[in-house]
Amino acid sequence: MSVERLSINQITVKAWSFEETVRGLARHGIGWIGAWVGPVEEYGPERAAALLRDHGVRVSSMCRAGFFTGKNPDGGGLDHDANRRAVDLTAAIGADVLYMVSGGVHDDLNLARSRAAVVEGIAELVPYAASAGVRLAVEPLHPMMCAERSVTVTLDQSLDIVERFDPAHVGLAVDTYNVWWDPGLDAALARAGDRIIGYQVCDWLVPQPHPTFGRGLPGDGAIDIPAITRAVDAAGFTGPIEVEIFNEKVWARDPDDVLGAVVAGFPHHVLP
User: What does UniProt give as the signal peptide span (predicted)?
Assistant: First the structure.
């Protein structure tokens, strides 16, 4: 099947609850979901695991934990208990990849110290995650998000962090929206090799409507997503490919229509 690797990150169909999302994916023949901590915790991890089993849907990743610098624009700062709870929820629903968002620059504006805090925070979380069988996926965000969301902004920078840890416990997450612009992208993906444990796709809309909520469906923007997929595959990643869309216009559409459009476009706008 041309969509056997397709995963839908739950934020793409934000209007749906966790249960509605799982049922909707099954209805469209989509076998993977990118889950979020909040909806899973609200639904209940045991119920969520049973629902996933009943509908034959597997979890490609869990979003998210981290914010190791203490900066989180969605509220709160570094919360060790919340990060450990995210690990627990990931394991409870049968997933093994938990996405890490680094956090924005410290209030003291010391970028070097902020980036050092990311390494320290991951190191603190690794033993707990490893004991639960969960791998931490370090995700660089686009440089425009450095101040408030992530001081980790390139694949090479993220790999410098990832390579400090056992590959069984810490890997790299690649998101087309965040990395497509990088002139060193192909070399970084080749360097990453089997350290890639997560791959997310969406498009860069022109003009860009919003730095966070400006993601488009694959094929609607400026990114050559199939070329990036080809490079990710060549590096050795053969796992699910998550479509992750933050866009209020997409969220306002009928989720069934969104899934239909993604399924129809996936072989042409995502696969190499």
Answer: none
DSSP label at residue 10: G
Q: Show the low-confidence residues of the chain (pLDDT under 50).
A: none
Centre a 10 Å sphere on the Cβ of residue 127 and count the other Cβ atoms it contains. Answer: 10
**Distance separating alpha carbons of residues 40 and 21, to the nearest angstrom:** 11
Is the CB of residue 144 less than 8 Å from the CB of residue 191? Answer: no
Residues 6+ apart with CB under 8 A from 207: none
Look up residue 70 and give its amino acid. G
Task: Tell which phi-psi region holds residue 251, choosing left (phi > 0), alpha (psi between -120 and 50) or beta.
Answer: alpha
Find where tokens 């209805």 sit.
27
Classified as helix, coil or strand, 203 is strand
CA distance 219 to 198: 21
Q: Give pLDDT, residue 1.
A: 56
Mind giving me the DSSP string for 241-268? EEE----HHHHHS-HHHHHHHHHHHHHH
Structure tokens at 29: 């023949």
CATH numbers and ranges of domains, the chain = 6-269 (3.20.20.150)
Say how far apart CA 215 and CA 41 lie, in whole Å. 26
